[in-house]
Specification:
Blueprint: E1 3-8, H1 14-26, E2 31-36, H2 38-48, E3 57-61, E4 69-70, E5 73-74, H3 76-105, E6 109-113, H4 116-122, E7 129-133, H5 137-140, H6 148-164, E8 170-174, E9 189-191, H7 197-201, E10 210-213, H8 220-226, E11 233-236, E12 247-249, H9 254-263, E13 266-269, H10 273-281, E14 286-288, H11 295-307, E15 310-312, H12 320-328, H13 330-338, H14 347-369
Parallel strand pairs: 1-2, 1-6, 2-3, 6-7, 7-8, 8-9, 10-11, 10-13, 11-12, 13-14, 14-15
Antiparallel strand pairs: 4-5
Helix pairs in contact: 1-2, 3-4
Length: 370
C-alpha cells in the first residue's frame, strides 16, 4: 500500500472533481492524504470529512488562492493583489509545513492539481511528483486556432503555470479538447477529463428541461435571461432558493446533480473544463458562459464552438436571443456531442501514469536497499 499526497486548487469544483475520481479508484489499495482549500475542501468534505472515517483517506484543509469579485464581476486587480498576499505571506509557511510532513510521512508519490505549495515542497525531496491539471493547456498546447488576443493571454498565463508546478517528474494535461502540443512539448501526456464514477455510470436521456450550473457571484440579470428559455431550468451552484418562474434552484447533491445532468435537454453553464467535459461525455449540447476577463474559460468556450457541440457568449453579453438561438439548434449540437459521448474519459490513462510512477518508486527503493 503506497502513501500518496494529493493537493489541488480550491476555486470552483473542477479540481476537486478530478481528485475525487482518482480517490475512488485508488483508496482501496493506497493511503491517500488530501490537501484542499476553500471550495475544493467543501466539495470533498461531503465524501471524505474526517468525521466520516473513510478508510485510507485523510482530508486536510489548507489556505489557497481565490478569485475576488466586485458587484458580481471578476475583479482582476483584487485577485492579483490577493495572489501576491498569498505568495509572500501564506505560501512560504505552507511550503515549510508540507516539507515537514513529507519528511515525517515519506510518501511514495505526490500529485498536484494546480496547487503550488506541495509542488514547491516536493522539489529536492526525491519523491516522484505528478502534475495533473487542466491549466497546462496554456503552456503546452498549440492554441494557434484561437484569436490572437487569447493566444497572448495564454502565453502570459503560462508563466503562472510554470511557477505553480516547479520541476514535476511528469506532467499530464486533462482537457476535453486536444490540439497538437507546442514544439518542445511533444512528450506531454494529453488525456481527457477525469470522469467521476457517478457520471460514467449514468445513462443519458433527452428530457424537457435545461440544466444550468453557475458561479455563486452570477448577476441576477443573467438569471432573468436564462428564465426566457421557454422550458424548465434546474439551476445549480447558487444554493437553494425559492423558485423563480421556470427556474428551480437546487442544492448541491452529487448524485442528484449527475441524474439531472444525464437527463437534461441541454446545458447552460460557466466554462470550466470539468463540467464541459462531463456534459460532453453524456452527449449534451452546451451554451458556455465564460466571464470576459476569465481567459482560461474563454479558451474553453472557443473550443466548444470549434467542436460544433454548442455555442458560447460571455456572461456579460448573454441575451434572450442567444438563449433562444442556442436551443433552436440544439439538435445539431447534440448530434455533434454524441460523437464524443462515452469517449472522453481520461481516468484510465491517469491511473496508468500513477501506477508507472509508483512502480518506478518501488524499484528505486529496492535498488537502494541492496
Amino acid at each position: 500500500m503506497a502513501k500518496i499526497f494529493v493537493s489541488m486548487a480550491g476555486e470552483g469544483r473542477g479540481h476537486a472533481a478530478r481528485v475525487r475520481t482518482l480517490v475512488e479508484h485508488l483508496r482501496h489499495d493506497h493511503e491517500l492524504w488530501l490537501f484542499a482549500p476553500d471550495d475544493a475542501y467543501n466539495f470533498l468534505a461531503r465524501c471524505y470529512a474526517p468525521s466520516m472515517l473513510v478508510p485510507n483517506v485523510r482530508l486536510h484543509r489548507i489556505p489557497g488562492l481565490r478569485f475576488h469579485y466586485t458587484d458580481g464581476k471578476l475583479d482582476l486587480f483584487k485577485s492579483i493583489a490577493g495572489g501576491l498576499y498569498y505568495a509572500f505571506r501564506k505560501l512560504p509557511r505552507l511550503v515549510g509545513a508540507f516539507r515537514r510532513r513529507i519528511d515525517a510521512v515519506n510518501p511514495d508519490l505526490i500529485i498536484t492539481d494546480f496547487e503550488p505549495a506541495l509542488g514547491w515542497a516536493a522539489w529536492g525531496r526525491r519523491v516522484p511528483h505528478l502534475s495533473l491539471d487542466h491549466q497546462h493547456v496554456l503552456m503546452t498546447y498549440d492554441l494557434s486556432s484561437l484569436p490572437r488576443r487569447l493566444q497572448w493571454h495564454a502565453w502570459a498565463m503560462s508563466w503562472a503555470v510554470r511557477l505553480h508546478t516547479p520541476h514535476p517528474t511528469e506532467r499530464v494535461v486533462s482537457s476535453f479538447y486536444s490540439p497538437p502540443p507546442k514544439a518542445g512539448w511533444e512528450s506531454i501526456k494529453q488525456i481527457g477529463p477525469l470522469i467521476r464514477p457517478e457520471v460514467a455510470a449514468a445513462s443519458p436521456t433527452v428530457g424537457n428541461y435545461v440544466l444550468s450550473y453557475l458561479r455563486a457571484n452570477t448577476p441576477d440579470n443573467v438569471l432573468d435571461i436564462i428564465a426566457t428559455a421557454g422550458v424548465p431550468v434546474k439551476v445549480y451552484g447558487l444554493g437553494e432558493r425559492p423558485a423563480r418562474g421556470p427556474l428551480t434552484f437546487c442544492p448541491i447533491h452529487e448524485q442528484r446533480f449527475v441524474d439531472d445532468l444525464a437527463g437534461c435537454r441541454a446545458v447552460i453553464c460557466a466554462a470550466g473544463n470539468q463540467l464541459l467535459g462531463e456534459s460532453l461525455y453524456l452527449g449534451k449540447p452546451v451554451l458556455a458562459l465564460p466571464e470576459e476577463i476569465h481567459h482560461e474559460q474563454m479558451i474553453n468556450a472557443h473550443f466548444i464552438a470549434q467542436l460544433g457541440v454548442g455555442r458560447w457568449t460571455t456572461l456579460e453579453n448573454l441575451t434572450p436571443e442567444i438563449v433562444a438561438g442556442f436551443l433552436s439548434h440544439d439538435d445539431a449540437y447534440r448530434d455533434a456531442a454524441q460523437r464524443l459521448q462515452g469517449r472522453l474519459d481520461g481516468t484510465a490513462d491517469a491511473l496508468a501514469e500513477i501506477t508507472r510512477l509508483l512502480e518506478r518508486r518501488h524499484s528505486t527503493r529496492v535498488t537502494q536497499t541492496r
